[in-house]
Amino acid sequence: MLRAGCTFGPPCSRSGRSRAAAEAIGAARPRRAARGAAAASRSGSGHSSSHSSSHSSSSHSSSSHSSSRRPRPACTCRATAADGGGGEGDLTAVFAAELAKRAAEAEAAKEAAAAREFNGGALLALVRAKYNRSYDFSLVQRQYMGKHFVALNIMWKYAEQASWPYSEEQFAARLDYIASALVAWGAVTSVQTQLAATKERPRTGKAVSLFLDVSPERAAEWFGA
């Protein structure tokens, strides 16, 4: 009688094949696991390399973008007075000179208009309007600390006084001479402005002085050498 564990016959043959198949499957599992681990390793390495490459590309792009946004150096092409190019300093000087020229022209026109009909009567009218009296005038020049001064003095004597020393004709001639000197010196508007602004009043022994911008050479024409 045969035993169930024999190595030949159909039952035993099927059992043997089953065990052989199981052993083959068991041996294949570690190989498949090893292949899967290797593939995973390669995939992880590729992903890491791709991520690194992407990061490097992003860094390069960021660096390129950053470098393109670097501040530009200041322009040094602006012309300056030092290099003869007519810079802002020159423009300012030209503008200031033009303003001064226009102001001088306007002042000259104003002086010419004021002097056109200025005479002794007009000079006396200025003083009467200011002080309500017909004060006498005197032109004086002085040298002080090396400087030359010319002034129109409004004296303390006036025509309404009983002790007035001049006749009407003498006083008129005196006024006309002084007015002619003011016109020749271009000092009419200066006298008008100073007289309107002063708060001083002639009093005994003290005149009101209106200082004039007159050169010694031009003053000498009226005062004598």
TrEMBL record:
InterPro entries: DUF3067. It comes from the Eukaryota. It holds the Pfam family DUF3067. Residues 13-28, 35-66 have a biased composition (Low complexity). Residues 1-84 are annotated as: Disordered. This is Uncharacterized protein. Signal peptide: none annotated. The lineage of its organism: Eukaryota, Viridiplantae, Chlorophyta, core chlorophytes, Chlorophyceae.
